[in-house]
Amino acid sequence: MVAVDKVNFEDEVLKTDGLVLVDFWSQKCEPCLALTPAIHALSEKYADKAKFCTLDAGTNKRLSISQKVMGLPTVAFYRGGEKVAELNQSFTAEDVEVKLKELA
Length: 104
Description:
By secondary structure, the protein is of the alpha/beta class. The chain is 38% helix and 27% strand. The model has no long low-confidence stretch (mean pLDDT 97).
């Protein structure tokens, strides 16, 4: 997984061809921390289908708000520089996998 922030978000996410999954999380978000191992497992399983990125929303608040991420955890899917789908707050790793398969 590629760690993104305000410096490299545009290049790593918005300027990337193909599907990009961004895991918005925070150190203070227990549901985020619980979901992290499953997201990492999906990144290995679907490495050929999508690029996986992780963004610490706690240290990148302005960037998160600019992407209309208002609650955590959030997993957003981008294609061609545009957000094409989003899962937020009450979702499981299985929900992420289903959406990933749908969009890939």
